[in-house]
Design goal:
mainly alpha, two-stranded parallel sheet, 3 helices, globular
């Protein structure tokens, strides 16, 4: 639970489920696909939003 404790120390709270996913990603040197990229980047995990490039343009019919 070092990730949870360090995240509170750094001034932001982390949910246990995010911390567990982050710990697994760090241990495996993996990236996390999520819509909450900010939550994982604050924990030092490489994260990306797989939907950000595939969302339809709102101006298109």
């Amino acid at each position: 639970m070092i990730l949870v404790n360090s995240s509170v120390f750094n001034g932001f709270a982390t949910q246990l489920d995010d911390a567990l996913v982050a710990a697994a990603a760090l241990a495996a040197d993996a990236k996390v696909a999520t819509s909450n990229v900010r939550h994982f980047e604050q924990l030092g995990v490489h994260a990306f939003n797989p939907l950000s490039e595939h969302l339809p343009d709102k101006a298109s019919p």
